[in-house]
Design goal:
It is built from 12 helices and 19 strands. The chain has helices spanning about 20-25, 30-40, 75-80, 85-105, 135, 155-160, 165-180, 190-200, 215-220, 230-235, 420-430, 485-500, and strands at about 1-10, 15-20, 50-55, 65, 120, 125, 145-150, 315, 350-355, 360, 365, 375, 385-395, 405-415, 440-445, 455-460, 460-470, 470-480, 500. The strands form 5 sheets. Strands 10, 11, 12, 13, 14, 15, 16, 17 and 18 form a 9-stranded antiparallel sheet that branches. A 4-stranded antiparallel sheet has the order 1-2-4-3. Strand 16 (about 455-460) and strand 17 form a beta hairpin. The N and C termini lie far apart (about 50 Å).
């Protein structure tokens, strides 16, 4: 959503100040939703949240300030100290249930609970970043039919882009407990594969102690109505809360080794002549971890690499089932069939995606692992007759022009009112990891001899390019990384091969 600064108020309080990006600041819908969410977030109390201390949704750059909580994130703690034992997991689960209960009581849903949004403070876990997700979720960032959250912790209904309620947070809590036990609820893979598994496959609970599996399995139910409430979780995970902490029930969830307290940073104080809090965007601040949140954005700090901050949101394409084709392709047909022409406000269905066994003069061969059935998607106000596709290819060494060792194709064909937006969502879904390093920000490239605009970026170990037209929206990841121009040229070749006129309907 923007940039986070570690700062001091004029009275000396240490706070985390989140300043929205200019694109969001210019969106009246975002401002209205942000104002409503901030008003609700101010009411959240409880022992396990970072409280909102001030905000100005009407400032030139809308901002939100929360209490600064010193301590490692849960993800950092697990990386350093390893999995938690059953006693620690129960305390962690109860603390998170208590935090969610406080958040839900104020009419909010977190929507992005994960280990990176949980600070392990000296007095127990604290949940961060509640109260702003809905503001982001309801803006243009998801007008292309996107889901909001982090793959691997998304509830099935959230991965499919449906409206969510408190049960989605309970699902995420269950996934967090699996992670804290040293597991991964849906294994490893791309964001799209993780979202597919959330919808269609069983959770992996093998890392959990036997005594916790029934409770976590209930949290991870595919049916939101079957998940326990946060109050029920408190009874299931901490039935002795009335007795208070004892020698064998520490106040802070423990790992197998003791964890030293994190030192409190010493941020730069705001000078006496600094603007008042109403102009916090202009105040003197220093960022604890300088990252601009959106790819392609310039960091306001010299030497800071472009990227997304670790507490940022993942704008992931709705892939309730993102699928590999077992055959030639899933067709878009004429009137009376999926994707028909009855609604004239949509573009005509003229092209579809077909994923062949080889690409670029047999230079890339299609991998046979993890093939899944095709998946038609529900219609929306901006998409009709859409189906998801994905396939991985590896270099065969048989074509001199091939410039990459591996290619991953993700896309959809259908009828799109905003194909460029869907394309950008696909690119996001292929590049967001929560800690990504953006070495080449998004750039629009037109390959010589082509009239199609291709968008490309390099994130971590892959260069990703994509296009969007009335009937096909595709993102392609190339490994290892290469120049954006080289990847765009390869994308143009692949587009010519996989974007084909719709086959005639069978009589």
């Amino acid at each position: 959503m923007g940039t986070v600064y570690l700062a001091r108020s004029r009275g000396g309080r240490t706070v985390a100040v989140k300043v929205a990006r200019p694109e969001l600041a210019a969106d009246p819908h975002f401002r209205a939703r942000f104002r409503a969410e901030v008003d609700a977030a101010r009411k959240v109390g409880g022992f396990h949240t970072a409280q909102v201390v001030d905000a100005d949704p009407d400032a030139p750059a809308p901002w939100l300030a929360t209490a600064y909580i010193a301590g490692p994130t849960l993800s950092g703690l697990l990386a350093e100290r390893g999995p938690m034992d059953e006693a620690g997991l129960r305390l962690l689960g109860a603390a998170l249930a208590e935090a969610l209960e406080a958040i839900h009581h104020c009419g909010l849903i977190h929507r992005d609970l994960k280990p990176g949004n949980i600070i392990m403070a000296d007095d127990g876990p604290r949940v961060l970043d509640f109260g702003i997700a809905r503001a982001l979720e309801s803006t243009r960032l998801t007008h292309t039919g996107g889901a909001f959250g982090t793959p691997g912790f998304l509830a099935p209904e959230q991965a499919q882009g449906h409206e969510v309620d408190r049960a989605a947070d309970v699902f995420a809590l269950g996934a967090v407990l699996v992670a804290a036990a040293g597991g991964q609820v849906f294994g490893e893979g791309t964001p799209m594969m993780l979202m597919y598994r959330a919808v269609h496959e069983s959770a992996d609970l093998s890392a959990l102690p036997d005594g916790l599996r029934p409770v976590v399995a209930a949290c991870l139910s595919k049916d939101p109505a079957q998940r326990p409430t946060t109050k029920q979780l408190l009874d299931l995970l901490a039935p002795r809360t009335a007795e208070g902490p004892t020698a064998d029930t520490p106040a802070r969830p423990s790992t197998s080794a003791s964890v030293p307290s994190a030192p409190t940073p010493t941020p730069t104080a705001v000078s006496p002549g600094a603007p008042a809090v109403g102009s916090v965007a202009d105040a003197a601040t220093v960022d604890a971890v300088p990252h601009a949140l959106s790819r392609g954005a310039e960091s306001p700090h010299a030497g800071s690499p472009p990227g997304k901050m670790s507490t940022g949101r993942v704008a992931a394409v709705v892939a309730g089932a993102v699928l590999m084709l077992g055959g030639a392709g899933y067709g878009i047909y004429a009137s009376g069939r999926p994707g028909g022409e009855s609604d004239t406000s949509f573009p005509k269905a003229t092209h579809e995606i077909v994923l062949p066994e080889t690409l670029v003069d047999d230079g890339y061969g299609r991998e046979i692992e993890h093939r899944l059935p095709p998946d038609p998607q529900p219609d929306s106000s901006t998409v009709k007759g859409s189906a998801h596709y994905t396939a991985n290819y590896s270099s065969t060494g048989s074509a001199e022009a091939v410039g990459f060792s591996a290619v991953e194709v993700y896309g959809s064909s259908g009828r799109y009112k905003d194909p460029e937006g869907v394309r950008d969502g696909l690119i996001d879904a292929m590049t967001v990891t929560g800690s990504e390093n953006v070495s080449e920000p998004l750039k629009t490239i037109r390959v010589p001899g082509s009239e199609v605009e291709i968008r490309c970026t390099t994130v971590d170990y892959r260069t990703v390019c994509g296009w969007g037209d009335d009937n096909t929206t595709v993102a392609i990841a190339f490994m290892p990384t290469g120049s954006l121009e080289k990847a765009a040229a390869e994308t143009s070749k692949i587009r010519d091969e996989i974007r084909q006129p719709i086959a005639l309907e069978n009589p």
